[in-house]
TrEMBL record, chains A, B:
<dbReference type="InterPro" id="IPR009057">
    <property type="entry name" value="Homeodomain-like_sf"/>
</dbReference>
<protein>
    <recommendedName>
        <fullName>HTH tetR-type domain-containing protein</fullName>
    </recommendedName>
</protein>
<feature type="DNA-binding region" description="H-T-H motif">
    <location>
        <begin position="24"/>
        <end position="43"/>
    </location>
</feature>
<dbReference type="Pfam" id="PF00440">
    <property type="entry name" value="TetR_N"/>
</dbReference>
<feature type="domain" description="HTH tetR-type">
    <location>
        <begin position="1"/>
        <end position="61"/>
    </location>
</feature>
<dbReference type="InterPro" id="IPR001647">
    <property type="entry name" value="HTH_TetR"/>
</dbReference>
<keyword id="KW-0238">DNA-binding</keyword>
<dbReference type="InterPro" id="IPR050624">
    <property type="entry name" value="HTH-type_Tx_Regulator"/>
</dbReference>
Length: 204, 204
DNA sequence: GTCTATACCAGGATAGAC
DNA sequence: GTCTATCCTGGTATAGAC
């Protein structure tokens, strides 16, 4: 890994726990193992490091949507049709995968915590945060459940309310198990309970 | 309002948007209309201001539980029995009240945003955050819905999963409509939709 | 591309006059 | 209880040697 990449890496770790303002350029340089002045050969300012992280995340989200078979504006309907025949256990497993990705993925977890911290000081960051973790997620799952209702897999009448009922508990548990001390296993168990309740409620 | 109270007031506003580290003692003093040095006649340090805010919130939460008829360790069962006969419209109104309280109450709204920002840098803050917005809320509502199932108002089988299904959308929408720019009316509308879907799903 | 040295400013906090 | 003046530390950033 290049020094530039290591700077981004360590900066993200620090930003996601102490926040942008709570992290000094010295902190980052120290974590990388260089002097703060050397860091300026790679980035012209602290802000530029932050912006690089946001750009990097956008790139990774793009890649992720392919790998995971997740949100992608063009392939939504096909995905919905594919998910039409999903079983309860498969839905539990998929939920756990998404949950663990947002919670623990080396990049995604720290990035989400960073945005959570920084959202209130900057309208632009707030918009990115809401787009990723709220609007896009709900929009995607609304299409998904709409299609599943149409196919007769579920019995709902309001695909959007259904999407919120599926996603909000995931979002809630993400925030609950964000702290380093809490046990992720408990989170997975609680998640499974919610998904099974969701299926029980909406099954035909 | 005394100068000391005004300091707490302005500090909370600043902490809840820029964070603790992002707010200087000079910023606070300026907002109050005094010099930063004068501030030290009221508080011995910046940290003491923060701690005063947390204590103040604890005091207000206590008062709130009486006014609102909300979480209170001793009166839970009585509350559950009282809520046994609640109608759908009453549940919508109650949800909106709680939502608006956590979102807009002059103290509670800013306090929640402050904890949201500061939770990752301090285990103790994280514990307070989770206790207030996750554990206590869910525990209280689990008792509530458990009693309502027992009384035959709702048809659920898992009171805890039900509590999460009721509360998680509220938590999700709180976070979604936290930004200053978004329209609270939209949030209330979305909230109502979720509560009505909740009732539709769990009604006998 | 890393280092040392340095400039410059802002932040937290104290002393002492009024 | 507010002010001015001051201290010290630490933060961002640049210059220049190696």
């Amino acid at each position: 890994m290049s020094t530039k990449e290591r700077i981004v890496e360590e900066a993200l770790t620090l930003f996601s726990s102490r926040g942008y303002q709570g992290t000094s350029v010295k902190n980052i340089a120290e974590a990388v193992g260089i002097k703060d002045s050397s860091l300026y050969k790679h980035f012209k300012s602290k802000k530029e490091i932050f912006e690089t992280i946001v750009e990097e995340m956008a790139r990774r989200m793009e890649a992720m949507s392919h790998t995971f078979g997740l949100p992608d504006d063009t392939s939504m309907e096909e995905a919905a049709i594919a998910y039409g025949g999903i079983t309860e256990n498969e839905l539990v497993e998929l939920s756990k995968k998404v949950f663990l990705f947002y919670l623990q993925d080396p990049f995604a977890g720290r990035f989400r915590r960073m945005l959570t911290i920084e959202q209130y000081r900057d309208q632009e960051i707030a918009a990115v945060y809401r787009k990723i973790y709220m609007e896009d997620s709900i929009r995607y799952q609304t299409v998904l459940f709409g299609e599943m209702i149409r196919q007769g897999v579920f019995s709902g009448t309001d695909a959007r309310a259904m999407a919120v009922n599926f996603y909000a508990p995931i979002f809630f548990l993400l925030n609950k198990y964000d702290g380093g001390d809490s046990d992720v296993e408990d989170g997975l168990e609680e998640l499974e309970r919610q998904v099974r309740e969701f299926v029980r409620i909406y099954q035909k």
